[in-house]
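Batch 3, record 17
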Amino acid sequence: MAFNNRLLRALSPADQETLRPHLRWSELERGTVLVSPDEPIKHVWFPESGLTSIIAMAGTDQGIEVGLAGRDGLVGMPLVLDADRTPHRIFMQVAGVGYSIDGDLFRTVLDNHAGIRKLLLRYVQAYSTQTTYTALSNATHTVEERLARWLLMSHDRQDTDEIPLTHDFLALMLGVRRPSVTIALHSLEGLGFIKATRGLVLVRKREELEEFAGAGYGVPEAEYERLIGQLR
Amino acid sequence: MPRFFLHIDDGTQRIEDEEGSELLDLDAAREEARSAARQLWASAILAGHDIEAHRFVITDNDGRVLETVPTDEALPKRLTGRLGI
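Prediction for the assembled complex:
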């Protein structure tokens, strides 16, 4: 069966067959915590659909999103980098499905299969480019521009134009209060780029949204395509 | 916890808060509106927009208006005095 996860898809057939017997398919509900801060990572996930959010914690129950991964990536990146845990929290922000593999087994596979290891290291590079552009965006862009960027990044990682997101989640993603999200959605809606209804954002004019998002969107995506392959 | 809706009236139309927030009580909702107003002003000033006419309309689950909070409450008193607002 063909994979939807872009990393699994980019592996050679032989490397795919190496991993396949160890992959366990699971449904991932919204809110499922895949990685807890400072706890040993026991499994690595390859999402086939849905979105995971990587959160830098400020204290025990607050934080801001610093990274996004879905079918483009994997969850449990520290294991690729020879680390066993992270201060970040990673959870399902949009429900989906994915494959998991036992963490110890995953490390052994990486030790023995350079093709898999190299691809995943290139993904780490692509992901790190994404986070640097998140830093750029957080420092220089308006809430509207950041929202546009964020919607595009979510849109890239799913097949439909409807993104199931509550304002609460968007506020966490953008590190702002909810009324700022309400106003930003209203602005993008006024420009005709999106349609926002309760818990759902419909992307209507993708190209215009890209133009609006400016420098925050495009470079990390091009970098992903250069290093891994097709993102969308 | 009760759910409060912080709609934004921009002087010509009401931007609906469709989802609302769970907050302890009306005081907490008022405080949330004030904090949000500070953030809205900060963004507005950076973008060169005037949001003087904006106000928060706080409603309950049944759509009853509980309170209206002008966003200029967030501005420092010295500033509003000087502007004659």
